[in-house]
Amino acid sequence: MNDEGPIKMPWFVYIIECKDKKLYTGITNDLTRRIKDHNSGYGCRFTKYRKPVRLLHSEKFQTKSGALKREFEIKQLRREEKLELIEH
Hints:
The chain is an alpha+beta fold and 88 residues long.
């Protein structure tokens, strides 16, 4: 804690591409660790057998709530729309 209150860690929404070219969207407050988790087989069931993964896109948020809302929005997109988002 500092004079301004507790230090808040940022949250990230991310999109990764698996070795089979499938896209996965998730959130985390430690992007580096989360990508390592996915590549070691501990990230989630979806990526466990699709590694290696590579980070294609991330967005930073001040709150978990903001990251969750954006994750939901991205998950509603079609693959083509996700790829378009990644390009910009």
